[in-house]
Amino acid sequence: MRLVLREFKKRYGSEKAYGEPFKTLIETIISQKNTDVSTAKVAKNLFSVADTPKSLAALPLKRMQRILRPAGTWKHKAAYIHKVSGIILNQYKGRVPKERQKLIDLPGVGPKTADIVLMYGHGVPSIAVDTHVNRIPRRLGLVPANAKLHDVKETLERLTPRNEWYAVNYGFVSFGQEVCRAVNPRCISCPFLRFCPFGKERVKRLKIQR
Ligand code: SF4
Prior knowledge:
Endonuclease Iii, domain 2, Endonuclease III, domain 1, elongated
């Protein structure tokens, strides 16, 4: 894990960038089962109309649905955002809670969304197991192939110091988009190939097929 982290820092730097907690929460709900490009576009459109718990709770549901339509599962997402905005406004006086369990208790918010809000919104270290963070440690053999999502999180948090969790999280996501992609990972040019069981097996297979 030490070598992985060193490579991530070399590639992606050590700077941390945080967003506003409420917008991070809403954008993460929009991102569920959606691409990064579409999420950014839809979130921009929504925030140009309403971007606070008060204004989003007051936005007519039909109008919100229309804006969210390109993000997929838009009926669910609109209902969640409407409810979440109302709860944040009334129950939490407009402030997104910092406690993981309180976040998970919000409609449409699971462990991954809660961890993203903590890490990238509040700046509270908490590794979020998204599709990339779930896939790459398995390929690298850092966690067993049958590990559950919370096992992946616990293992990564155990293997790295807390002040490095941002770099670990950001690194896996960026590396998953760029190199260790779900389909056609770039194993041959990957700096981790020499110790990656999945990559070594894949390269061997590709050579046999040639
Ligand atoms: Fe991913 Fe291949 Fe690199 Fe392993 S060798 S980390 S599977 S890109």
